[in-house]
Amino acid sequence: MSASPPTTLESAAEWLRKRFDAEAARGVGVAYELDLTGPGGGVLAVRIDDGHLDLQPLDAASAARRDPPVRPHARLRIAASDFYGILAGRENSEMLYMANRIQVEGDLTAALRFRKFFRRRA
Hints:
Blueprint: H1 9-19, E1 29-37, E2 42-49, E3 52-58, H2 60-65, E4 74-79, H3 80-88, H4 93-98, E5 102-106, H5 108-113
Parallel strand pairs: 1-4
Antiparallel strand pairs: 1-2, 2-3, 4-5
């Protein structure tokens, strides 16, 4: 397994899959839409359902229509480089939010819980 941090939507999805903590997600049902802007970005639908993870990249048409596979509890808009920095442990999501570098639409509590479903190390 590569120790390098993610730099693309596909590598971020793989990072999330490998580090998903099914036990932390037991009994949880929540959906997210990650809108990663800039180079290496894209839109990723993330669904957590009772310890199971489903990730789906959304095409531009679906994202523009706001037509994800499941209606998200929270949409997070963030620069791809900042999101990948969070995953790699170089950035702090709370500090980015306070600096207005993460915009949250929907349930803020759900957005704040996102990170707890993924371990730092695989």
